[in-house]
Amino acid sequence: MFDENTLAYCQNHCSEESDCAKTIIEESRGHVKSSQAVGRLVGNLLRVIAGASKCRTILEIGSYMGYSAAMMATAMPPGGRLWALEEDESTYAQLCRNIRQNSLENSITPILAEGFAWLADYKGQFDLIFLDARKELYSNKLDLLYNRIVPYGVLAVDNTLAGGKVLAPTHDWEVAMAHFNRSLMKDPRFTVVQLPIRDGFAIALRGGGNDWRIR
Fold first, then answer.
1. In sequence order, what are the beta bridge partners of 190?
2. Which of 95, 130, 98 is nearest to 112 (CA)?
3. Residue 96 Cα distances to 74, 75, 139, angstroms
4. pLDDT tens by residue, 69-87
């Protein structure tokens, strides 16, 4: 979304990655999906959201190598728990190795599952849900997401602008992302901000309209 020099400046002027997140990047090099890690900029944004919201329960749908999970886990208070869902078996195996080798078992629970199917069966709620899965699955999932987030909890979504291609989408995942963005923006139950960083990033607070007056 920005020229490379501006993006590099932003990357270099935010906090260092956690040690375990750095290690995960190194250990995952060469894996077919290693480039899908959110990176230092978005990783720190997630860490700030998790810390500022004092999140004790976090769900990540689409964990890949575990980089973003490691970043968020460092911001949770003692006793916090992050559920890391990954549907691809080979990627899940690498996720488990990364969690184990970085001694993150006490804060991150890896789960092999399609995220929305798992979430539909889960009856609890989360302080934060981070969504970074296959975009084609997002359609008509707002009710489910709303019901699984605590009041005034946060929904964070990566790749929401598809590098700007949501303005004139052609591929199925771009169309799905554009549809999800419109649905989220129009849903009065959420207060939404879209950020033009990386491929786009949305932050939505479960609460909106008259909810603010009675908080």
1. 206
2. 95
3. 17, 20, 29
4. 999 999 999 999 999 999 9
CA proximity to 192, closest of 157, 143, 145: 157
Q: Is 22:65 a contact under the CB 8 Å cutoff? A: no
Assigned architecture for domain 4-214: 3-Layer(aba) Sandwich (3.40)
- pLDDT attached to residue 214: 45
Beta-carbon contacts of 30 under 8 Å, excluding residues fewer than 6 positions away, are: none
**Rounded mean pLDDT of 191-213?**
84
| Confidence (pTM) | 0.91
DSSP state of 16: P
Residue spans of beta strands (DSSP E) within the chain: 57-61, 81-86, 108-112, 126-131, 149-158, 190-195, 201-206
